[in-house]
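Comment on this:
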Amino acid sequence: MSKEQQNHEPPSETRSNDAAMIEAALREARTAARAGESPGSDAVGFTAPPPDAFAGYDVIDEVHRGGQGVVFRAIQKATRREVAIKVRREGPFTSQADAARFEREVQVLGQLSHPNIVTVHDTGVAGSSHYFVMDYVSGQPLDVSLARGDWSIDETLRLFAKICAAVNAAHLRGVIHRDLKPSNILIDDDGEPQILDFGLAKVATGPADAGDITLTGQFVGSLPWASPEQAEGKQAKVDMRTDVYSLGVILYQMLTRRFPYEVVGNMRDVIDNILSAEPARPSTIRVAAGPRTGRINDEVETIVLKCLQKERDRRYQTAGELARDVNHYLNGEPIEAKRDSAAYVLRKQLKRHKLPLTIAAGFVAVVTAGFVTSLTFWHQAADQRYTAQQAQAREAEQRKLAQESAARAETEAEEARTQAAIAQAVNQFLNEDLLAAVAPSVEEGRGRDVTMREVLDVAAQRIKGRFADQPLVEAAIRTTLGETYRKLGLLTAAEPHLVGALEIYQRAPVAEHQETANAMDSLARLYTDQARYEEAELLAIEALAMRKSLLPAEHPDTLDSMETLASLYVGQGRHEEAEPLYTDVLAIRKRVKGVEHPSTLISMQSLATLYMHQFRYQEAEALLTEALAIRRRVQSVEDRGALITMNVLAEALRLQGRYEEAEALFAELLPIQRRILGDEHPDTLTSMNNLANVYNYQKRYELAEPLYLKVLEVRRQKLGNDHPDTLSVMNNLGMTYNGLGRFEEAEPLLKEVCDRVRKVLPEGDWRIGTCLFKYGHCLFALKRYAEAEENLLEAYRISLSTFGPEARETIAHVYTLTRMYETWDVVEPGQGHADKAAEWRAKLPATQPTPTEEQPTSGEE
């Protein structure tokens, strides 16, 4: 049976004795029948094909016929592999939506590669009908498999964790299923789950095409398993957490054989239940699947109910997070959903180490029993006296606290109402007005890609004068636009929005000081990106002081401000001032969040990066190795954070000259990034660039060149020629051409980099000096000595003022100038070049190793 055969086919046996579950399944079958999808029905436009209807395949038989198409079992001639061929229905009864869904399913499945997701092998056209070829798998839908088996709770959860992992793999590629339900999950003969039917999937990454846009108010999915945002038809709110909700309904069914609320009746009642009815606690429902199932305990119930939260922010944020918590439970570890309970965590740890703790407790009890007894009577008397003395004072203090609490509650309620109104207005503008503004251009372009820049520019135009009487709403929207522009590298476009937001907050009442601090911090980050360090520092210091006065020292916003200031210092080369900030943030996060928390791991990585700037490579390596080990223990090896840590660790190895180890780590990292993120994802491109840097340092320029060219092509297309990441790879490619002796190709590339960085960076910025140095080295190789001298001298002056005379970068400049004047003197003797060579050689430290200025001086992170 193919994976697709199960999608709309009602099970042949009753799934349970629960009437609601039976009725929901039958209703789904009746709906499919009305659409012409009932098994065995004749779909218009199809006749049984001959065995050779599909080139390269021998058709064996038909296994399913539905409203959207028909599925055949076939043998691939070349490999003799058994496959399933799904053919799209054609004819007068097919619709544009059917065609779009069929094509969407092919496109989405072509992007995914996971052992628990159906794999597409081929596509084509047979006559006038489109088709695609996928795996043929023998098995039953999830609900049928559960009904026929005697599953324990642990067995159920192990199967469910695999389902979550497969959904998470799709999420990592930006694919949201939107129609998860038991009939779309096939259990094969080996007991492995297979996720089916991505025809309604939504691609969440990258610009949307016209087929992606679903109108507000339109329902997409299968109602009994739909999330509240789907039931409301609010497609702008549909994201990964929507699939998490559907997974929660499925897990509820797997454990109880029932739905969490009533799904039988008229559609309005069902939708109201999805939106507002609280699920019955699974532990109160008798599990009637067999004697081995056991009872549902508090931890399992907590996991299920967290998935089914009506508010998206209170659910698990990803399917991967859900899978990790299920595995925590199965491994006897504390689940994240109950981490806030210290007593619970302690109880779990005691359970895991029961025997040694029991022995120790018994020993302590024997030793202390006599001592405790002797003190008991004395304590009783002291307690009575103390209680009498404090009762009166406590009563007065409680009255005072009650009054203060009431006043504070009223203030907080008013602030909450204000913030809710602002959030609602911002959400309406960004998710409704903005979508309505962009949709006409999509329709006119008939599928033309709409870039994020175009969407932001439309928003920037529509906000003008729109919120004159709602300044705080305008400030919130401008902050969102400015931060998005900044993260896309569009710094000039970001500035007026972040400046405008700060000006609004500064004119607001005192109660808005926290928002003022947030706006200052955002603008400080922008100015840091623009190398406007003096302006950035004033803002960053003020934002930090304001947050320290308003918030606890360990508050995430306070820690973010400390990191903003530290990042600013790193950009200026003020590493000694940055280090205590990074160190303090890491210590606080370890204490408050624990060493395994994502924010703690990010802090470890930031501090390690600082060590790399300070040439403390061994300390950086130790910190990164620890962070990577933790990520691999508590996260998936394919988690994006783990992949980023691997990239920075490989860079630390490269900077120590351990090129073979760095290359091996990149060889492990890149295939994972390409499979999960794709070849054009920014993380993948960064790793390709850094691997090319390793090849450059090994003088394997012929291996570096194609990597740089690929990265440059994508970055030029997606980021433009002036983006810092584009200029970085152009610079590196120019150095590769230098290494290959192709100086004529290197010269225009390096000159273009110098010209462009001068436009976007302030005069004297160290990055301009780096570009001038590499360009000057190229001119030196081309024997254009006068031009080389001009660029190398300016590069030296910038390095001297930024890093000082003893820095590695400055010494490399001195060494190159010395060599250039010596060579120039041989070509043009008697022109004073020998004297200049001697002057520069005298500046070289006697014990300093010879710099290798032919190579790039830094990679990317």
Summary: The domain at 139-348 is CATH 1.10.510.10 (Transferase(Phosphotransferase); domain 1). Residues 354-445 form the longest helix (92 residues). The first strand starts at residue 57 and ends at 65.
